[in-house]
Amino acid sequence: MSIDGEILTAGDARASGDRRRRSDLLLPEIALALSGAAAFFLFPDDLGFITQILVMCLFALSLALVLGQAGISSLGHASLFGAGAYSAGLFAMYVSSDPLLGLAAGAVGGAMVAAASGLIILRAYGATLVMLTIALAQLIAEVANKARPITGGADGLSGYEVAPILRLFPFDFYGRVGFVYALVVLIISYFLVRKIVASPFGLTSRAIRLEHRRMRALGCNVYLHLLAVFTIGGAVAGVAGALSAQTTGVVGLYSLGFGLSAAALVMLILGGVRRLPGAILGTVVYMIIQRVASTYDPAYWLYVVGFLLIGVLTILPNGLMQLVDMARLWIWGSSRG
Amino acid sequence: MKLAASIVLDGVAYSMVLFMMSIGLAMTMGLMRVVNMAHVCFAMIGGYLTATLPRLLGLGFEASVVLALAATALVALPIERFLIRRYYRRPPLDQMLVTIGLIFLFVATADLLFGATTVTMPLPSYMSGTVDLGFRLVPTHRLYVIALGAIVSLLLWFAVERSSFGLRVRAAVDNPGIAEAVGIDTMLIYGLAFSLGAVLAALGGIAGAEIMPMEPTYPERYLLVILAVVAVGGHGTLFGSFVAALLLGLVDTTAKYLLPDMSSIAFYLTMFAVLVVRPQGLFGHEH
Predict the structure, then answer these.
(1) pLDDT confidence of residue A337
(2) CB-based contact A127 B35, cutoff 8 Å
């Protein structure tokens, strides 16, 4: 019996094995590529905004791995994003302006902060863990604020160059290269995360989320496993931060802030926290609503997101993907008997 | 010596405010196991109403305070009854997120009703001015805050430890199942405790308005501070919240006097350190 599409029992694994051939077809990645292409041609003047959506999708994906799969409740995920952003920015400034190396720098930055944080806080659970993530993220943001010579403090980090990708594709003013760059990074990352989720490693993560005491009794080193997931999630978030740094040309303290952590959580909950497509869906819906609401009146945005959050959590706890699943069920009927 | 006395004075005043603002949240977390991030908004309601009612309705300060507290209770009751109650059994993250949604609503409303700039609290004449304590001049208001905090703490202690309401609350905290079996209406207790906590927060907001002025970004600024006090003290303990408020209030004030740049870092470092060593808080129970 699977809870909204997750692989939880042998029966699900068998059923998903039948679907495995389908999943090897890279359907989600193709869907992402096609949607991206459509956006490219439909909204050529908004590519900067859509690129930011892609960056946020990647960030939400990282949270989907850490929270949705492994159950690590974190309201401080932005510290990993910001770590990646600052790493990439500083890398571009002092080492090399090659963007692909910058992505690697971002991944390493995010992973290192995640590993260091995780070492300390992953022994805690529930509300305590959330408070720890909040406190830690605040601390990191404060330190970054004080480290003006390195991070630029409240003024942010800027003035670094981003070289042409693969030395062939320079970033242009219309954001076309940036957009395609972000899209490709997102698609590749999505594929990798999907593979992780479907692997035994992912299964263990889900098991830990559901029954961590039982897993410990079975001999699993829960702490180390969670640390591994958290570090991988940190790397993905770091890549998202690096993308942001490279496509916007500036890194600010907001990339470490509680607001960003909360926003990512809202996006993920909105889309559906258990399913990877939920991260994409929730992010897109959130960013579009935010854009529309703020063109009318920024104050209304708070009302919209407030009601959205309360509504989704109370009525649709599994997010918008729940609606998608219901529609699928209604159209095609259950394939699980 | 003068410096130490100053630190203690200001630190205790700040701690009293922190205590009043966070005791309601500590009670809610202990009783219903709900993390209500919107708790800080009750402080904001109390502060805003007390600051604006004199101008709007021509009332005196004291009357405005009473009205503000009543209004806060009236707002808190339906929130508990119709929203928070659904979340008693949900994971802490869900509770936090839905109450963050509430925060957005409160902030948007505050912005709409009161504007984006800070609103100052009009103090009555007997609270304004300064008192000469020999080693320094102290704003009279601050002495009132310390006195208020002490009175509230005593009253709360009396209510929780000695009254039948307090007895029922403690029973509901320790073992809701048996409490209900014995005939205690736990749902009623939850609603009343929630409202009481909200009123206390409002009082804290009013008292603290000198150092924490009213503005729409109030929740965003002080939510984490209140969470820190509750986390450090441990859920559901009166004494724990009091000690935590004193600890964090004094740490913050000391840092502000001696190392002003590091005061936030000192504050969150303390919170972090306590939680790592004792995840259930200084006086909390292991769940």
Answers:
(1) 40
(2) yes
Per-residue burial over A63-74, b if 16 or more Cβ lie within 10 Å, else e, is: bbbbbbbbbbbb
Residue with tokens 């009525």: A315
Query: Given an 8 Å threshold on Cβ–Cβ distance, is A307 in contact with B275?
Result: no
Q: Who's near B240: CB < 8 A, 6+ residues apart? A: B26, B233, B234, B281, B282, B283, B284
Other Cβ atoms within 10 Å of B140 Cβ, number: 16
* H, E, C per residue of B121-170: CCCCHHHCCEEECCCCEEEHHHHHHHHHHHHHHHHHHHHHHHCHHHHHHH
Q: Is some CB atom of chain A closer than 8 A to the CB atom of B268?
A: yes
Q: Does A292 touch chain B (CB under 8 A)?
A: no
> Which residues of chain A are within 8 Å of residue B228 when distances are taken between CB atoms?
131, 135
Least confident of A80-94, B106-120, B121-135, B171-185: B121-135
Whether A112 has its CB under 8 Å from any CB of chain B: the answer is no
Out of B29, B111, B227, the one facing A134 most closely (by C-beta) is B227
Rounded Cα distance between B223 and A127, Å, is 15
Q: What is the ipTM of this complex?
A: 0.83
Predicted local distance difference test score (pLDDT) of residue A2: 45
From the CB of residue A271, how many other CB atoms can be counted at a distance below 10 Å? 30
Q: Which of residues 138-177 of A touch B (CB under 8 A)?
A: 138-139, 142-143, 146
Asked if the C-beta of B127 comes within 8 angstroms of chain A's C-beta atoms, the answer is no
**Rounded mean pLDDT of B160-165?**
84
| Nearest one of B244, B267, B149 to B204, comparing CA atoms | B149
Question: Which pLDDT score is estimated for B279?
Answer: 80
- Tell me which chain A residue has its CA closest to the CA of residue B281: A128
Residue in A139, A269, A300 nearest the CB of B268: A139
pTM: 0.87
- Contact between residue A273 and residue A179 where contact means Cβ atoms under 8 Å apart: no
pLDDT band at A4 (very low <50, low <70, confident <90, very high): very low
Instruction: Using a CB–CB cutoff of 8 Å, tell me whether B35 touches chain A.
Output: yes
The per-residue pLDDT for B7 is 87
Residue B286: pLDDT over 80:
no
Cα B59 to chain centroid distance, Å, stands at 25
How confident is the model at residue A22, as a pLDDT?
54
